[in-house]
UniProtKB/TrEMBL annotation:
Alphabetic keyword roster: Hydrolase, Membrane, Metal-binding, Metalloprotease, Protease, Transmembrane, Transmembrane helix, Zinc
Cofactor(s) needed for function: Zn(2+)
Organism, scientific name: Kribbella koreensis
Domain Peptidase M48: 126-178
Membrane-spanning parts: 6-23, 35-58, 78-100, 261-283
Protein name per Swiss-Prot or TrEMBL: M56 family metallopeptidase
Family of the protein in this entry: Belongs to the peptidase M48 family.
InterPro entries: Beta-lactam_resp_regulator, Peptidase_M48
PANTHER family, per the entry: POSSIBLE SENSOR-TRANSDUCER PROTEIN BLAR (PTHR34978), SLR0241 PROTEIN (PTHR34978:SF3)
Keyword Aminoacyl-tRNA synthetase (UniProt): no
Length: 298
């Protein structure tokens, strides 16, 4: 097999860097979708490459192993056995990490649902620690503690609800989960879960600002909630107070960013390149496998 099968690994090294830079210039909704798509494609293409490398282990098993030392047959040279074994191990570990990540998210959602009964889309938990979180489901709801309600005034509570409902309406949990699973299978994407989590919070901030018509109020509410929850025991995902509050407050002090489709060019180019490289690797793999199987069946 030629270098095409290894290209997804090389591209993964730069996807996160390019996505992080892209996020500085684009509105958060476009940046979040683009970063998630880039992470998903990187994970899928790497999985395909690892699978193809792993399958070459079969050439070490009878009857294929009988042709290993017969160069006169002109069979395509397989990948070294040690490399195929490493690929198989990495793939197995990655799948295990994905399963663990999904189990952790399922347990967190179950625990959050158990904290309060939803009425009209809102559940109030009698907990002194101030936090609020969007709990996805069918239907999803906003979970807020009595501590958070005491902390905020009426206008700030409207910001909080608009923010959390944005998470539910936009299905932000899906983007966060995709980024997490992509990184579980491809550790080279390690900055992506943090980046996507930050971007969906910024997205919800912008939705809250559009709903309330007051960017300064949103910034004040984010800062207030974040200061109150600093160092607390329980800080769930997708809450008003999470993910780089300082940067989010600073962003709300500026006008909303304009949509610049050219800003996604870097991630889009890498995504297309990964898909093309993987496609060429698949074609080559099928051709090589056909040659080996043809020798056995012939």
């Amino acid at each position: 097999m030629t270098f095409f099968v290894y290209l997804p690994l090389l591209f993964s090294l730069v996807v996160a860097v390019v996505a992080t830079r892209m996020a500085r210039w684009l509105p958060p909704d476009l940046a979040a979708r683009t970063a998630t798509a880039g992470a998903a494609v990187s994970a899928l293409t790497l999985t395909a490459s690892l699978t193809m490398l792993s399958l070459t282990l079969f050439d070490d098993l009878p009857p294929l192993s009988a042709f290993d030392h017969r160069p006169e047959l002109g069979l395509p040279k397989p990948v070294p056995g040690w490399l195929a074994a490493i690929a198989a191990l990495v793939l197995l570990v990655g799948v295990g990490r994905v399963v663990l990540d999904l189990v952790r998210r399922t347990r967190l959602r179950r625990d959050l649902k158990a904290m309060g009964t939803s009425r009209a889309g809102i559940a109030v938990a009698d907990v002194a620690e101030p936090f609020a979180v969007a709990v996805p489901g069918r239907p999803g709801h906003v979970l807020v503690t009595s501590g958070m309600l005491r902390l905020l005034d009426d206008r700030e509570r409207r910001v909080l609800l608009a923010h959390e409902r944005s998470h539910l309406i936009r299905h932000h949990h899906r983007l966060v989960a995709i980024a997490g699973c992509a990184t579980a299978i491809n550790p080279l994407l390690y900055p992506m879960p943090t980046l996507v989590a930050y971007l969906v919070e910024r997205w919800a901030d912008e939705d809250a600002a559009a709903r309330t018509g007051d960017r300064e109020l949103v910034a004040k509410t984010v800062a207030k909630a974040s200061l109150a929850t600093r160092g607390q025991r329980l800080v769930p995902a997708m809450g008003l107070h999470s993910s780089s509050a300082v940067d989010r407050v600073a962003a709300m002090a500026e006008p909303a960013r304009q949509r610049r489709w050219g800003g996604i060019a870097g991630v889009a180019a890498l995504t297309v390149a990964q898909v093309l490289a993987t496609g060429l690797a698949v074609v080559e793999f099928v051709s090589d496998a056909g040659a080996w199987l043809g020798m056995v069946l012939g």
